[in-house]
Amino acid sequence: MTDSTPIPTPSVPAPDILRCAYMELVVTDLAKSREFYVDLLGLTVTVEDDDAIYLRSTDEFIHHNLVLRKGPVAAVAAFSYRVRSAEEVDAAEAYFKELGCETRRSKDGFVRGIGDSVRVIDPLGFPYEFFYEVEHVERLAWRYDLHSAGALVRLDHFNQVTPDVPRACRYMEGLGFRITEDISDSEGTEYAAWMRRKPTVHDTAMTGGNGPRMHHVAFATHEKHNILYICDKMGALRISDRIERGPGRHGVSNAFYLYILDPDGHRVEIYTQDYYTGDPDNPVVHWDVHDNQRRDWWGNPVVPSWYTEASLVLDLDGNPQPIHDREHKSELDVTIGADGFSYTRAGDDEGSYHGEASKGFKLGNQL
Amino acid sequence: MTDSTPIPTPSVPAPDILRCAYMELVVTDLAKSREFYVDLLGLTVTVEDDDAIYLRSTDEFIHHNLVLRKGPVAAVAAFSYRVRSAEEVDAAEAYFKELGCETRRSKDGFVRGIGDSVRVIDPLGFPYEFFYEVEHVERLAWRYDLHSAGALVRLDHFNQVTPDVPRACRYMEGLGFRITEDISDSEGTEYAAWMRRKPTVHDTAMTGGNGPRMHHVAFATHEKHNILYICDKMGALRISDRIERGPGRHGVSNAFYLYILDPDGHRVEIYTQDYYTGDPDNPVVHWDVHDNQRRDWWGNPVVPSWYTEASLVLDLDGNPQPIHDREHKSELDVTIGADGFSYTRAGDDEGSYHGEASKGFKLGNQL
Amino acid sequence: MTDSTPIPTPSVPAPDILRCAYMELVVTDLAKSREFYVDLLGLTVTVEDDDAIYLRSTDEFIHHNLVLRKGPVAAVAAFSYRVRSAEEVDAAEAYFKELGCETRRSKDGFVRGIGDSVRVIDPLGFPYEFFYEVEHVERLAWRYDLHSAGALVRLDHFNQVTPDVPRACRYMEGLGFRITEDISDSEGTEYAAWMRRKPTVHDTAMTGGNGPRMHHVAFATHEKHNILYICDKMGALRISDRIERGPGRHGVSNAFYLYILDPDGHRVEIYTQDYYTGDPDNPVVHWDVHDNQRRDWWGNPVVPSWYTEASLVLDLDGNPQPIHDREHKSELDVTIGADGFSYTRAGDDEGSYHGEASKGFKLGNQL
Amino acid sequence: MTDSTPIPTPSVPAPDILRCAYMELVVTDLAKSREFYVDLLGLTVTVEDDDAIYLRSTDEFIHHNLVLRKGPVAAVAAFSYRVRSAEEVDAAEAYFKELGCETRRSKDGFVRGIGDSVRVIDPLGFPYEFFYEVEHVERLAWRYDLHSAGALVRLDHFNQVTPDVPRACRYMEGLGFRITEDISDSEGTEYAAWMRRKPTVHDTAMTGGNGPRMHHVAFATHEKHNILYICDKMGALRISDRIERGPGRHGVSNAFYLYILDPDGHRVEIYTQDYYTGDPDNPVVHWDVHDNQRRDWWGNPVVPSWYTEASLVLDLDGNPQPIHDREHKSELDVTIGADGFSYTRAGDDEGSYHGEASKGFKLGNQL
After folding, report:
1. Is the pTM of this model over 0.90?
2. Measured at the alpha carbon of residue B269, what is the angle toward residues B268 and B272, in degrees to the nearest 5?
3. Is C366 among the domain residues?
4. Which parts of the sequence are annotated with region: Disordered (chains A, B, C, D) (predicted)?
5. Does residue D235 belong to any structural domain of this protein?
6. Is there a contact between B243 and A360 if contact means CB atoms under 8 Å apart?
7. What CATH number has the domain bearing residue C106?
8. pLDDT, tens digit, for every residue of B133-160?
9. Domain-located, residue C325
10. Is C247 on the interface with D (CB under 8 A)?
């Protein structure tokens, strides 16, 4: 069952985290994954070997934003954050030790291109990494001759599935993250929250559900047409069935988005144009779970798989973490299907809405 | 029941049609419709009175592309085409008289801004108009100070619902239209066909269904972001429930599209970037009805309402035309739901496809 | 000296021309030209051999839009137009024979992929070709996997330099072209004119200057960002010195444009978003040569080389045609430099304008 | 003469600056300025009175990003930065007092919407402001119904003209800014430097020239087409002569840009798509002053006025600050005209370059 006891805040200071830096993904077929991330999405290969491929986006100057490692079970091996200095790696180790978490330190890093790092299984059960030392590589921002029409310029954020969102938020705030937006209902149930270190809408988000699992990893493009091109290309390659949701405009974050599925079913978001959140008093945006524009500003339906499917995460020995069920209400249940309802206009009550033909097709689409 | 006897080709020459020029729409609340077409979509008012509003797109130099006329029942009063010369209006009248159609001639036009015109109820039951004389107005292409972020530059095409698509096609070919693309199945059932006079993919299309009805009227933008802006604006205005389908990329026509519903439920498409079709040997593109990318290149589901809902059309006295049921197979039935199937890859058979999880959600989404 | 006697209109009908179809360019280094047109611009190679490369744009279904042929002198071997039927090739031959022009007929075509064709040296001294028979190839519009970020979708138009613009216009009107826009002055001097067969602003334009010469050949993209990407890529390849003019917005045509120079100095325009011109009474747009927004809507200066440089054209034996000087006023002289003036606002007279600081830098930039 | 003695670093800590927050501009005709910033650029009026107009961008939640104040002489009254907390305003005051700068404190702020602030004349002679307390207003990011086609989403940066760039940089680094890019030559002359607090390429830049003066204030858009629309609109309004430079792609910052002039000649940049610079070891990009792509990646010429013209800045009593001449080499002189040279390819030496025809027109354009 889910542990709902609050996570204590350590006496030692939290590490000073700069940003989400890279994800280490375990994939079952390296060649198929290379087709997806390199041939389709155009990520740049920094280095590769028989075991792993190291990829980066066009604006990046650190060694990689994504590691694809060959393994028996598709899963996430690490959510890796960069900290402000070498000392902050020590701070991270001390912080999680005091939390009683399992930690592992590697002076030479756990992957190529990264130096002294610490990996931990955090109180929510996720494999988190913290590092500062990293190999610099060419920032390809000016190398337009290498950019595809759907160029990914930056790793933007992670998204994690966890059963108890408020508990996760308090813990992440202790770790120094700030909430920028959330989804809840009038009874106080929290369904999801977005939190940041760098001044964008998020470095990671907590999505309520059975967890710990990885919901998606997101890369940013410069413009919306770059994302549309990825859809067009997937159509041309006859893999449109790997487009799970979108493209669309998020309510939360106000960004333009697309969700696609890699060969192992790992979800990747392509994302662009959220807003600056760097001021301490940045206004937090609260969304009603019944607002039909919260997850798609255009009111397009969220496909059920987007709520139910997610990737396993691994412990420090590489074994899948057990999944704990969410005991709070599910966003899927309260918004879609027989028991669910959503509105387009806050004024509309459930009744009027069932009578609304123009709304009907949207609902019908979700049943 | 539907008349399936072929429509004869008259002995007199067909009128030389230039292009679809404007639609006369009957709306039940002129003020609400003005909000939609002027405030939301940014069409320019050429002239208006208590009874009607005359609207045009930014590249247009003729008096209007759309007439909104106040009336008791939402419907289409005319699909109006411009012909090459004043004489061609006579040709049109003679052509439809020989077909035994009801025709009406007005030297001063049936609406403001248009001169000598003939209106007919064509063999498919649609109110068609043909004119040449028209009042010129300023082409606003250079008036960027008047353009909205979602500027509509041109009337692109009509789309008509008719029970017997092959019969309609043969008739339209007699009238001088050329087929550019169609959707059919291996048993020879035709579900829809696109046909043009100007060298784009279409001036009108025939969609199989209960008819005669108007499926939609389409305006073109310059770029895709213009269409995305219209969606964003509808979200901001909290009328996202009037976005019926899209935005997306069509398979047919290769254009980028959006379908929205006006206050009376008249369907409007916003459309951009199809291709030149002006050569006599322009290759006709045939789509398999089971190809899941035919109507949305990204494989996103077509909402059922898009297949079932359409607008009434009027006879020359302003009374709604009776609806005849389609007796051939329905695209909705053969592609969606228990009996339907679609594939992403021609290789996939129905079986393999049911086993395909990643495909499941797309289907599930349509059930 | 220039022949200013009007060109008679033949008694036989002019051929029914569909559109500009391809240009045959002579280049001095096939490998370098391939780098430019294939590696940089992303045109698709239909076929190539040691002597020539046949290229097409993404929307094209005929064999090619551009032939690069290896030769000793950079020049244009043919401006090739497609006619409506095989018979129209005969009509073209008869038409130019009656004009007393040298004509040559080849049942197998003059280049690969093209059938029965006639080539002529037209009354203005340009090598024109007319054909109908052509090999069909795959239209790559849906092949997004093959599209670059700067994808060229269509051959849009040619642009020719000729000493006497009014004389050229009367001749082209006889050949069935319609004027859409022109540039002249209050004294009646014509500096340039745009004329079309397909319903865009032009299939070719006549630019006043020493001729016959080829000013540029233009390809269309779908959106403006495609053109900006080509600039960015040329910067990345460190060939920004091959960007001659733009990107910018034309006054004439209202299209977005860029002019770049191939390795032989042949000028290529990348162009998008002009307007429909297919109605017989399409309003002709007249521009004052002194209107500083006529050639760049943003008032950015036209570099002198754009007015003075152009490509040689060949006779039917492959020898360069002699150049005749323009005797009328030059657009360069009347708009730039000591004797020239331009205004941003029609109200401004030359005097006020010299005193206008904000105008000064624009002028200064042109001196 | 210019003071070239290094500026000492105070013993007290520098204030923790978040970002550039707003500029207070003195304009001579409030109505004309309103036309420019509100009607043309679409900035939102938070509040206005007979004396001043307070404007903000669509993503902003603080009271304003720009104040237009009516005054006798066009100038800049304040470059205003937001600090992390109320205490940091005290820190700023102490910091500049120790530097011996004139400082003024106002608990109620110097302008509407802003609370406790300190204004100083900094060691370079610029009027700087620091504040934390501010009135929150609606963030209009989701209000697409209010966005123009050229929507400005964020204040991006300032740009200052100062005679001694290295001296200015050392001082700004003491104040906590980090250099991201610079322009220098092989002899060590520094011509310009970009420096940031928020993790973009800059919050302000130091441009070498006679100063203290304000070179420009920059606002960001989401996409490039938004900037192109502003150009198109200025053409439609027949004020294209207020487009000073661009649009283009910067080498420095890799951003897409446009420079326009307001009615008083204050220069405004519209800017989009630079890159994340938030890591402490973010690589500094050094540009050679002779690299012709440093300021325009496409090699388009920088108009002389862009180097020579700038706005006055005021002292704390509202009187224009005296201008000190730059004694180091001028970027204009070393790159343009008889003594200057630039190259497109680092390989090219000055000699080869004069022989390069394709380069000739670019140079000719600059003479």
Report:
1. yes
2. 150
3. no
4. 347-367
5. yes
6. no
7. 3.10.180.10
8. 999 999 999 999 999 999 999 999 999 9
9. no
10. yes
